[in-house]
Structures are given as C-alpha cells and as structure tokens.
Amino acid sequence: MLKTTKEKIEEIKTNGYQIDFGNVFNHAFENYKKIALYAGLMIFVFAILLGFLAAGIVISTFGVSALNQKILDDLRVENFTGLHLAIYLILGILFNCLLVPFLAGLIKMAHSAEKDEEFHVSTVFQYYKNPYFQELVISAFIITIFSIGLSEMLKLVGIEIIGALLSAVISFFTFLTIPLIIFGNLKAIDALKSSMIIVSKQPLVLLGLIIVSRIASLVGFIGCCIGLFFTIPFIYSMYYVIYTSIIGIDSENEWE
User: Any transmembrane segments, and where (predicted)?
Assistant: First the structure.
C-alpha cells in the first residue's frame, strides 16, 4: 500500500532520511537539459511582461517622472517612509503571490520532462487555477510577510545584514513548499511546516545543493545576461529532484 505524503513526513520526522549530493546534482543536471530551452523562453517572456507591469505601477504610483534615473535613485527602498514603504511592502507581497504559480509551473515542467511527457505553455501556467492557486498564494503570502516584513523592520533599526540573513534562512527552510503543495497534496500551512521539517534533517547537504544550483544559474551572465534566463531553470530542476529524492512522486500523491 502506497504511503501518503503526510505519512512519509512523519517517518522523516522520526527517522530522518539519506540523500546523496552527487546523485542529486547529476540527476538535476540531466533533467535541466530537457527543459532549459523551453523554460528559459518562458522565463524571458514572463520577465518582459513583469517589466511592463512594474513600469506601469511605478508610473501610476509616482508619475512618469519616476522613470528619470535621479528620481529612481531617490525611490530606493532605504529612502522610503510612511505611505511609500507601505506601498512597497504590499507590492512585494502581491508580486510574490502572482509569481509563485509560475514557479510551480516550472517545477511541473521538470516533472513532465522526467516522465518524458510533452510540455507546453499551459504547463507553466496551469497552477493559476484552484485548488493549486489558492494554496500557493497562501504559502507565498505567509513567507513574504515574514521574509520582507522582518527584513524591513531590522533595516529600520540599523541591522540590515541580519535582516538579509534572516530572509535567506526563511527562503531556504521553505523551498520545498511548492512541490509539497503540487505533488504532495498538502495545504499551505502543512506544506510550510513539512518543508521546515525536511530541511532541518539534512540542512548542510541541502544548503550545498541549493548554493551550487544558484552558482550554476549565474553562468548565464556570460551571455550578456540573456543567458541567465536559460540557466535559471536549473534551480527548479534541483528543487524537483531534491523533492523526488526525499519524498518521491506517485499518481496517488498528485492533484490531477
């Protein structure tokens, strides 16, 4: 009888798990090669759309003059006070909530590639509908509130470095939240808790894999930054392979 994701999490909570750095890295790289081009194009197009959206928000909020470089310098976060800081926090939360279903689509694409299934534009955007969208947005909202909120509060009291480190720690311990929702059929809160449990059992190995995947993705800067769009997908192949190496995926765990 197949175990549910919650049962697997309970086992991990009690007994831990083993994960091999080399095997996971090689597996992630093989998976990445299958999705690099298509996922890179999707990220490139999505980034352009977000760029237009961000410009529109800046213009509607601060006026056309905000596009002037001098004024843009004045609009740095550290110079924000009162209303502008509140707007920044709200937009940050909104941005992450709208972005997370797209990131879930990239992880789903990695899964489709693993199973040698075709993937299309619809694969990347399939999580902009319930039940996925609701749970993904809730998880992104909670993570962003803690990450940006605590980081900005610490900046205000003059300990910006601690805020940045705290934000990075939160991001690290919750990086498995998305696959736990889309593959493990967990609700947002359960996925967040489960991600923290899983990461806490092998933090050094997982941190090493995440750091290596981030460094590898930066290779894209060589191609006048355009190449970055085609190396970023390696991060999501890594997330996918880490999840499957620890939890695994079977048809009973997927929301189809």
Answer: 35-65, 85-107, 132-150, 156-183, 204-236
